[in-house]
Amino acid sequence: MPRGDIESDLTQQSFTGSALFEKTFDEGMALVEETARYLDGKGREESRDLPRKAALLYAGESMRVTTRLMQAASWLLVQRAVHDGDMDADMALQDRYRLGSKDICLGRSAEGIESLPGALQNLLERSDNLYRRIARLDDEIFGLGQPAAGARGQLDALAQAFK
């Protein structure tokens, strides 16, 4: 049964050979580059002008956006390597090649995020969207019977907990 624009019988091979993969890969790599340019340039300048509390929040949230994007880029590069024959598909099943740092990447932003520069807020939102899409793909392709992420998966987990 379809879930959104992803078929439930999605395989690693069908995904990495698709236009969806190419679009996601290009978007992810472009967002990595854009974020690096911002954090090394304008973002560095903007952070110097922030009050102490906001500057600490900026530091934490810039680490979160960096972690999200590095995890997403690593996952995408592994999928590309499998598709190109540079890596065995069975290796991609290993935990070290799966999408990681979910507790950091999916955690709630600290209070006061609205005090951060708009450009960083935008990068945080876009990196969160990208990471969540890749997390759903990772679950769909490699979940091996685990409940899907999102509301249905949470409801199923709650139902299991109260049995």
Protein described:
By secondary structure, the protein is an all-alpha fold. The chain has one domain: Helicase, Ruva Protein, domain 3, CATH 1.10.8. Helix content is 65%, strand content 0%. The chain has seven helices and no strands. The longest helix has 32 residues, at 52-83. The radius of gyration is 18 Å and the shape is elongated.
What is the level-2 CATH architecture name?
Orthogonal Bundle
Helix/sheet category:
mainly alpha
Low-confidence stretches: 1-8
| CATH C-level | Mainly Alpha
Largest sheet: none
Number of helices: 7
Q: Domains counted in the coordinates: how many?
A: 1
**Backbone shape:** elongated
Distance between the termini: 26 Å
Q: Can I get a quick summary?
A:
Helices cover about 65% and strands about 0% of the residues.
Which characteristics define this entry?
163 residues; mainly alpha; Helicase, Ruva Protein, domain 3; 0% strand; disordered N terminus
Chain-wise SSE layout:
Blueprint: H1 12-16, H2 19-40, H3 42-48, H4 52-83, H5 102-105, H6 118-142, H7 151-161
Helix pairs in contact: 2-4, 2-6, 4-6
